[in-house]
Amino acid sequence: MADRIKKLLDSGKVRKIIILSGIAGIALIFISNYISLGNLRGAKGDEAFAVTSYSNEIESNLETLISHIQGAGETKVMLTMENSVEYVYLKDSTTKTKEVEPVIRGVLVVCEGGDDPVVVERVTQAVTKALDISTAKVCITKLSE
Question: pTM for the full model?
Answer without folding.
Answer: 0.59
